[in-house]
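User: Quick sanity check before I run a bigger batch. Here is a single chain. Can you write out its predicted 3D structure?
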Amino acid sequence: MVTAPRLDEQLCFALYASSRAITNAYRAGLADLGLTYPQFVTLLALWENDDLTVKELGERLHLDSGTLSPLLKRLETLGYLTRHRATDDERRVRVLLTPSGTALQGPVLEVQRAVASQLTLTPEESDLLRTLARRLTGDGPVTA
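Assistant: Done. Predicted structure follows.
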């Protein structure tokens, strides 16, 4: 008799559930700022490296253009970024933060601090978990 794997023993489910838990922890604080979680991570990427092409930003966020374009349009409508065609190649669209988008860093940092205070992980455990998760997405060193 073949026994189905137990749900609680599945890495995929543990990652799925923990991802939802973290996203939910951010929800209220970000909502107070008028942001969704995908908008938040988009701003994080731009605060780290402003003036990216849509393609570069999509690669950084692991999002396709069909998902990223409406997200960027909404952030542009909110006044947090601008999009414009690159002067050297009109096929490329560049994304730049506005002063309002840059100014959101302080309030977002407060949301991040509030979420971090809810975590039951030590800083070392958080670092290890992030390293392992990045390895799964191909964003970190892969070792045997």
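The longest helix spans residues 11-32.

User: Great, the batch can go ahead then.
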